[in-house]
Each structure stands twice: as structure tokens, then as C-alpha cells.
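Give me the fold.
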Amino acid sequence: MASLDAPLAGIKIGLLKEFFDKDWMQRMRSASGRRWLCRAARRDSQRGESAESSTFCAAYYVVAPAECSSNLARFDGVRFGHRRKNPRDLMDLYKRSRGEGFGAEVKRRIMTGTYVLSAGYYDAYYLKAQKVRQLIAADFKRAFSEVDC
């Protein structure tokens, strides 16, 4: 904590521009009690501070729903997850347990993930997204090697 108010001259701070929208940056610039992140975002060249940014793509929208679908498949109401009371039969238990146990957004992610993992689309979407994910990880590693924090 004591070093937060220390001068940042000569320290290279990396910021991912996608994580900070313009409104947030403006609020941080005008906030009282600025800390190191605020000063880095301000790009105060008079004090020798600099900010670097890195970009990454949205492979998240393919990989995350696929992982969601895969990981939540076990929540069928038999061993894991919400269990519907008094089901008529096994199919009713599955349908109603999953229908009641998951919210609308989770259901959308499961359906999207199931789609990208299906046989006809696995190579076209998921496999390519995983390759992009590896490229993103390599880009982060390179970016972290070029900044102090």
C-alpha cells in the first residue's frame, strides 16, 4: 500500500483497452484520491508515466458457452443440481429439473454451447476458437514480458 503513492517514472504499466470504456476512464481521471491505475490511465507524460494496451479477440463467445454446456450437462436432477419434486417419469424429471434449475441466460449459453460442439460445427467453431485462445494466451505472455505490471 505504501508504494501506491510512489512516483511511477520509468515504470511501464500495461492496460487492456477493452477492459476500460471511455466513461470509466473519464471517471477515473476525475476521481479524488487517485492511485497508480488512475495515473497510468491518465498517461501523464510530464511525470514519465506511460500506458501500453493490448488487444484480444472474442473467442470467448464460442469457448465459454461450449464449456458451459459441457460442464452443466451433469446437472440433470439425478445426481447433481435442482431436482423436480414428484416427477411423472424419468424424462419429466430431466426436462423439468433442468427447466426449473437454470435461468434464461444459462439456458441460452447451454444451447449455444451444444450447437458449437455438435458434430457438424465442432471444427468450424470450437476448434478454431481454441486455436485463437492459444494465440491470445501467447499474446498475453508477450505483452506481460514488455511491461512491469
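Strands lie at 12-15, 50-53.
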